[in-house]
Structures are given as C-alpha cells and as structure tokens.
Amino acid sequence: MAGIEEQPPVDDSAKQREWDEYYMKIACLAALRSKDPRTPVGACIVDSENEQIVGIGYNSMPKDENFTWKGTSSTKKTSSLDPQENAANPELKYAYVVHAAVNAILNKTKESIKGCTLYTTLHPDDDCARAIVTAGIKKVVYCMYKRDKNLEVGMKIADVFFDIKGVKLRKLPEASLKVCEYVKELQNRIDVGGKNKSSEEQSGEEEPSVDRKIEPASWEKFFMSMAKLSQERPGDFKNKAVGACIASPDNQIMAVTYSGEPDGIEDEVKRLAKERHDLTLTKIPEFYTHAEYRAIVGKPSVRGYTLYVTSYPCNVCAKVIVESGIKEVVHYKNGDWNDDRCYSSRKILTTCLGPSNIRKYGNGDSINESQDEASRSIAIEEPGHT
Ligand SMILES: [Zn+2]
Fold it and tell me: Can you give the residue ranges of the CMP/dCMP-type deaminase domain (predicted)?
C-alpha cells in the first residue's frame, strides 16, 4: 500500500495549476502597465482550444490619459467638465475607471471569444461580469488582491451573474505565484498603495496614495517582457521555449506565444516513427513550431505590426515575417551568424524590412533606458546575458 502512496498523483490537476499560474503571471505583468496607484489590475483571456492568448488588458482611465486617478468631480459639485479636475472624494474614480477584464475583452484579437477563460488578478465585480457574460466567456480564474470594501456588493452581484450564465469561477491560490518578479512587483505596488490608504484613514487626512504617480515601464520593455515571460511556459518545453509578442502601432498586444507543441508530442512522434519503420522521423526539433511563426500564422493579419522575439528568428520564420507584413522586428538575443539558416534569415530580414527595422532589444532610438530606470520599471535582464 505504501508503494501506491509513493506514486505521483494523477497529474491533470497539477498540470492545470501550472498553466493557470503561467497565465496569471501574464495578467500580473499586464497589471504593471496600469497607472492606478492603489489597485492595479491585469487580465488575460485564453482560448482553451489551442492555448492561445486572445486578449490582454489592465485597468485604465478612458483612453488611459484623459482622467485623473484622484477621481473626477460629478456635475453636482461643479459645473466643470475638465477631466483633470479633482474632486474631494477620490472614490469618484470608480465612476470613470475601465476595469482590466473589460479592457482585455475589448482588446480581443479574434472575432469571438466565446467559451474562453479569463484570468484576472482580482475577483471580478458587476462591471466586469457584464462584459464577461456578454462576450460568452465561460471560465474565470482570479487570484490575490482584495478590492475596496465598498465594492464587495459588486463582487456578490458578479457571482450571481456567473451562476445564472453558467460561468465557472475559481480562485488560484497565490502562494506559488510569489516566485515571479512581476507578481512581487505587483504585490509591492498594491501594498504601498494600501499602506498609504490606512495611514490616511487613521489620520483622517486627504488620500495621499492617489498622489503617487505611477509611470509604467516603456511599451517596448513591456512587450519584450511579455515575450520573455511567455518563454516560461510550463510543460515539455520548459526552459527551451522561445517567446514572442506582436504589438500594433497603437500598442495593442495582438499575440503572445511560445515555441513548441502540446505536451506529449515527443512520445507521439517516436511512436509514429516506430510504426512507420522509419527512425529518421524522430528528429524532434523538426516538429516544433517557433513562437514567432505561431504568433503570425495564428492571427488573421499582422500587417504593419512589430514583432518582439527572445531569439533571432530562423529562416523559416523570416519568410513568414516578411510576407505577413510585419514591419519591424525587435530581438533579444543575436543569432549565430555562422549558422547557414541564421545567415539566410538575416539576409531576408535586412533586405526586406530594411536594416533599421530589425534591431536588437535596447539598441533602438525609441527606447529611453534612463527614463525607464527612473520609473518603477519592469525588471528585465540586459541583452546578451542569458
Ligand atoms: Zn523560426
């Protein structure tokens, strides 16, 4: 009997947990783009059928820039319609903020996200629930951080919404998430915001936390961080994967992908090679699909977009990059120029996109590293040190 106990448990739930954590980390990274000084929230939508990310969002003010997080006056208090005019009551921000789940749904990269799973760093409220059920999302996974008490009613309403529409809601335990730098940074940002709040409540003074201006890391750093984080996908390809992220000119994330195939493909390839009596078919890497390839071919159109990728694309990927209309490639690592495939890839990309549109991460003009250092930036290793 002891032998039975020592056997590893049937691993479906453990595997599911790993994927849940992976997607939740993506949601946490998204949250770091939020400028909310108290409760930054991130969300990520996953098409369970092919394990593709089909929407990413974080809580923002309308158009992200127009309104202040201090709350905007209602017309009862002032006749001003100036969006930056602060009211005495910072809670008024809730009337203006667009929630992370709603933004993720609006940022969807395919026509229908029916049946998809939404990962969010916070329990949804009624505002989120309305969008979730309208979009046809069927599963919601949340973790971590508490909402303000005055929004608990909204959370209860969301639960009823989900019951009626058959949306499955589950909580991901936060313990194992703490290993990730983005989770830590998010937790820290929330802690600081929360601390300020309680001291304000004790002293009865004006909300100091909302004066804390959050300057997220540059878009370029954000997109490359997405690509690097997606390298950390669990399963067979753990530590082998390349990550890619495609962004539109208006900074919408169109794809976040990793290289590889579903778990178990190696065994399946070996089995079929044996069955066909041809062991030359066991060259496993030939069966891998690269991250950038998946990102491009999996989307309807990427014309005019920028590709962020953790390794220099190979020649197979270079061909689809240029033919797809991708206009710019930012790579984290250089290629091995002595390798024929890498050499031809470089030739294809520089010839077709122009040398200035294929560049190493951190070398571009658009990235202002010193500005990033000054802000509470997303940590990322310097290029060339992996
Ligand atoms: Zn490739």
Answer: 18-180, 218-348
320 Cα to the center of ligand 1, angstroms:
9
Give 384's contacts (C-beta < 8 A, 6+ positions apart).
333, 334
CA 344 / ligand 1 centre spacing (Å): 12
Residue located via tokens 């760093």: 121
User: What is the pLDDT at residue 238?
Assistant: 67
Q: How far apart are CA 97 and CA 251, in angstroms?
A: 19
pTM listed for this prediction: 0.81
CB-side neighbour CA atoms (13 Å) of 365: 2
Q: Residue 333 Cα, ligand 1 centroid: separation in angstroms?
A: 13
- The residues that bridge with 309 in the sheet, in sequence order, are 244, 331
- Ligand 1 center–CA 18 separation, angstroms: 26
CA of 294 relative to ligand 1 center, distance in Å: 9
Give DSSP secondary structure letters for 278-318. Answer: -GGGG-GGGG---HHHHHHHTSS--TT-EEEESS---HHHH
Going from the Cα of 316 to the center of ligand 1, the distance in angstroms, rounded, reads 5
CA 377 to ligand 1 center in whole angstroms = 30
CA angle 103, 109, 112 (to 5 degrees): 90
Rounded to whole angstroms, how far apart are CA atoms 68 and 82? 10
- How is residue 253 written in tokens? 């994330």
Q: What distance in angstroms lies between residue 282's CA and the mean position of ligand 1's atoms?
A: 19
Measure the CA–CA gap between 318 and 347, rounded to whole angstroms: 9
Measured in angstroms, how far is the CA atom of residue 265 from the centroid of ligand 1?
Answer: 18
Please give the distance, rounded to the nearest whole angstrom, from the Cα atom of residue 290 to the centre of ligand 1.
5
Sequence-distant (≥ 6) Cβ neighbours of residue 232 within 8 angstroms: 22, 25, 238, 241, 243
**Distance (Å) from CA 99 to ligand 1 centroid:** 36
Q: What value, to the nearest 5°, has the Cα angle with vertex 38 and ends 34 and 44?
A: 40
Grouped pLDDT means (10 residues each) for the chain, 386 residues: 45 82 94 90 92 93 76 54 59 80 95 96 92 96 71 86 94 79 88 61 44 83 95 76 94 91 76 85 79 90 96 95 97 86 92 95 54 35 38
**Residue 383 CA to its chain's centroid (Å):** 21
**Sequence letter at residue 302:** V
